[in-house]
Every structure is written in structure tokens, then in C-alpha cells.
Design a protein that fits this description.
The protein is mostly beta strands. The chain contains 3 helices and 8 strands, in the order αβββββαβαββ. The strands form 3 sheets. It has a 3-stranded antiparallel sheet with strand order 2-3-7, with no helix packed on it. A 3-stranded antiparallel sheet has the order 5-4-6. About 3% of the residues have low confidence.
């Protein structure tokens, strides 16, 4: 999972290539989307220094769990706005209460929690979160898209 600020998906490719940890040829996208709303807030990006600090932060969570009627581990990716990681976990788990997790006594494990704002700290942008009563759908694309570097062909 990577978070990149750009004008288009194509303009993220160089950043993604430069931060890829695997082999250059294997880099690909599985899904991407522009995040403009989450958990009751409009989301915008502005240059650093122009944003009034707020207590709420934007978090991405990959939730995991089990249902005895399905032969697989279930996953649910969500964005949550909260003041801290503990509150984020509590809010997130309410979205998967219908899953069963018999081996952990009906507790749900938050597999991965990432502060999107912490990811942006190294960039030249800040997030702006504005409370709203107008929810917006998360529009995304799921499409295998290779963007890896092709191995150079040596000429002798």
C-alpha cells in the first residue's frame, strides 16, 4: 500500500518506482483511487504551511477476520478519521462485527494500521480534513497495471 499525491495515476509512477522494494520488473498496480471523502470528512491536499493543525487524523486500516461459512481469511480495507490509533481500531472494528473469529474469542484483529498523514510528512503537502454531512463514494479502479522498469538490454 502506497499513498502518493499527484495530478493523475500516471504521475505517481516515478515515485512508486523509486520506493519499490522488490525487483524492478515486478512493480505493478492492482488498484488505485482518489480519496476525497472518508468517515464524515471531505479530504483535500494543500501545500505545507497553509493548513491549520487539527486533532483528527486520517488512517488506513486493513482488517482481517474469519467467517465459519467461508473458507478463506476475510479482509476489509477502510479509511477512518480519529484522534489516535486506539480510537481508530475501535471505530474500524464496528464495520466488521458480522465476522466470526472463534480462535480469538470474537475479537477482531486490525492487521495493519497506517497514518496517511504520517506518510505525507516527507512530502510537500498536508491533508485538510473538513467535517461534512455530504458523503461521497470512494471511486477506485481495480486493474492489473505493470509499471516496472524493463531490464536493460546490453549491447555488445
Amino acid at each position: 500500500m502506497r499513498f502518493v499525491v499527484a495530478q493523475s495515476i500516471e504521475k505517481t509512477y516515478d515515485v512508486l518506482r523509486n520506493t519499490w522494494w522488490g525487483t524492478a520488473e515486478s512493480l505493478h498496480l492492482d488498484a488505485w483511487g482518489e480519496l476525497v471523502y472518508a468517515d464524515g470528512y471531505d479530504i483535500a491536499v494543500q501545500p505545507k504551511g497553509n493548513v491549520v493543525p487539527v486533532h483528527e487524523k486520517l488512517y488506513f486500516l486493513n482488517l482481517g477476520g474469519y467467517d465459519s461459512k467461508q473458507f478463506t481469511e476475510l479482509h476489509h480495507n477502510i479509511f477512518v478519521i480519529a484522534q489516535d490509533k486506539q480510537t481508530t481500531k475501535i471505530k474500524a472494528k464496528t464495520q466488521i462485527q458480522h465476522w466470526e473469529v472463534p480462535h480469538t474469542d470474537n475479537n477482531f484483529e486490525v492487521e495493519n494500521i497506517i497514518s496517511v498523514e504520517e506518510c505525507l510528512e516527507k512530502s510537500e503537502y498536508d491533508l485538510v480534513l473538513t467535517k461534512t454531512n455530504s458523503p461521497k463514494p470512494f471511486i477506485f479502479t481495480c486493474k492489473y497495471t505493470p509499471i516496472g522498469l524493463q531490464p536493460e538490454i546490453a549491447v555488445y
